Amino acid sequence: MNDAAASPIRGIEAIVVGASAGGVEALLSIFGELPQGFALPIIAVLHLPDERRSQLAEVFARRLRIPVREARDKEAIEPGTLYFAGPGYHLSVEQDRSLSLSQEERVHHSRPSIDFLFTSAADAYGSGLLAILLTGANQDGARGLAYVKQQHGITVVQDPAEARVDVMPRAALALQTPDHILTLGRIGSLLVLLESTPC
Amino acid sequence: MEKSSDIELRLLIEAIYLKYSYDFRDYSGASVKRRVAHAMRQFDCATISALQERVLHDPAAFMQLLQFLTIPVSEMFRDPSHFLAIRQEVVPLLKTYPSIKIWIAGCSTGEEVYSMAILLREEGLLERTIIYATDINPASLDKAKQGIFSLENVRAYTSNYQQAGGQRSFADYYTAAYDYAIFDKTLRENVTFADHSLATDSVFSETQLISCRNVLIYFNKKLQDRAFGLFHESLCHRGFLVLGSKETLDFSGYSKHFEPLVKQERIYRKS
Q1: Backbone φ, ψ for residue A101 (5° rounding)
Q2: Relative to the CA of A35, which of A135, B7, B14, B218 has its CA 20 to 30 Å away?
Q3: Which of A100, A106, A115, A127 has the most B C-beta neighbours within 10 Å, making it the best mutation to test the interface with B?
Q4: Do A116 and B218 touch (CB under 8 A)?
Q5: Can you tell me the distance from the alpha carbon of B96 to that of A188, in angstroms, rounded to the nearest whole number?
Q6: A19, β-bridge pairs
């Protein structure tokens, strides 16, 4: 296992995060230390029951020091903002680094799909992408994470020993060896460190 | 340096446009790329170029590919609160017109058409309404014309219908046969199903209401603006435009030509 803190990651332009069961606590943990004025955009898919209106953005906005919004179709990605995929639609990153929504079939019973977000973001950002896969009870995200690595992005998987539900991180590890396998605490420190090492 | 697969994708989209006049050039790229990748697996083609070779020389193969390129994901009374708002806020104004023309743009397999027809019948408006239901996919239009949906799905639509302010039993509108629900054909007596592309065709009628839901998300901003331009041209003075729950005029140059009537439900009015 690499020690991320000892080898700072440079050249990251955007962060994508995927999580499922146990994800709310995990995301609050890794984003909790982000300082006001954090410069990188973060785009997150958190599987939720398919409710019509999600409160995720509101919940996280109250707890974090960075702006948090539900992603809107054709919106330009702004630095320092955390975007959540809303329920019922897939969220993608376009080549011009805007966000887009779609309603294709579910992936691993999920819409939004982590695979779709990760794959499209890897196409848009290439080696400038940091992708993080956390706790979860299905296999969505594993293929997307492998694709991020193929496109020379940096991949991080939550240490399955620590994950609330380890199916998702283990599925990712079964497909490829990520750059880092880290606890939530260390992922949080890594994100803060990204901020202090401009490319 | 551009990736070979990206070059191939652009060439395929260009080839489809040149050969078959279907214009996907200004569709949102990420979704098109996924759908082409999905089609490649179904066609057992190792590269996009191989797929292009197939569809350029075989119109039947192209029609198969078109089924992958369009997204027939729909429901009846999808977003019930949207239909409730149409019933409460738009219908009273529509009732002031002696005759009504409605355009359902990108009607896919017809779920939105039957939803609208049922709503209009319950409000006593269907008999004086003409509905134009358009789509680029002939197979979807055929399905829409038949009005036959899986009974399992229709059961799921029943709660949508009730939440949308439905006044009867949803089963009054269809006959169940085996695993299918056959919808009352009088619902489509005043419906004209037609092939129309928001990317390449122009306006064909003046309308009082246009419903275009979960279509524009597949377009880039340029094509969205083209569609908004067509809607603006087709709508009568103070006509209504209704969009999908995640679609908005906010990022468009046409936003100043429309005003929100029920913003939360994506109901706009030409200003």
Answers
A1: -110, 155
A2: A135
A3: A100
A4: no
A5: 60
A6: A46
- DSSP result, B238-253: EEEEEE-TT--STTSG
Cβ of A52: how many Cβ atoms within 10 Å?
11
Domains of chain A by range and CATH? 8-196 (3.40.50.180)
pLDDT at B128: 97
- Return the domain boundaries, chain B: 4-69, 80-270
A27 membership: H or E segment, kind and range: helix A23-31
Q: Which of A86, A89, A94 is nearest residue B30 as measured by Cβ atoms?
A: A94
For the stretch A107-126, what's the b/e string if a residue is b when 16 or more beta carbons lie within 10 angstroms of its beta carbon?
A: bbebbbbbbbbbbbbbbbbe
Kindly tell me the sign of the dihedral angle through the C-alpha atoms of A187, A99, A105, B114.
positive
Name, in order, each residue with C-beta under 8 angstroms of A174's C-beta and a sequence gap of 6 or more. Answer: A142
Judged by CB atoms closer than 8 Å, whether chains meet at A103 and B214 is answered as yes
Q: Do the bridges between strand A90-93 and strand B207-212 make them parallel or antiparallel, or are there none, so unpaired?
A: unpaired
CATH architecture of B80-270: 3-Layer(aba) Sandwich (3.40)
Of B31, B81, B214, the CB nearest to A100: B31
- pLDDT tens column, A162-183: 999 999 999 999 999 999 999 9
Cβ contact, residue pair B31, A104, below 8 Å = yes
Residues in A touching B248 (Cβ below 8 Å): 72-73
Closest to A119 measured CA to CA, from B50, B107, A104, B216: A104
What residue in B sits closest to A71 (Cα-Cα)?
Answer: B246
Q: At which residue do the structure tokens 């004086």 appear?
A: B128
Distance from the Cα of B264 to chain A's closest Cα (Å) equals 11
**Each residue's pLDDT tens digit in chain B (271 positions)?**
788 999 999 999 999 999 999 999 999 999 999 999 999 999 999 999 999 999 999 999 999 999 999 987 889 999 999 999 999 999 999 999 999 999 999 999 999 999 999 999 999 999 999 999 999 999 999 999 999 999 999 988 999 999 999 999 999 999 999 999 999 999 999 999 999 999 999 999 999 999 999 999 999 999 999 999 999 999 999 999 999 999 999 888 999 999 999 999 999 999 9
Judged by CB atoms closer than 8 Å, whether chains meet at B217 and A103 is answered as yes
> Within chain B, where are the H helices?
4-20, 29-43, 48-57, 59-69, 80-85, 91-94, 111-122, 138-146, 151-163, 221-234
- Separation of alpha carbons B215 and B111, rounded Å: 14
Span A41-53, pLDDT tens digits? 999 999 987 655 6
Q: Are A153 and A38 in contact (CB under 8 A)?
A: no
Among residues A53, A29, A76, A47, the alpha carbon closest in space to that of A192 is found at A29
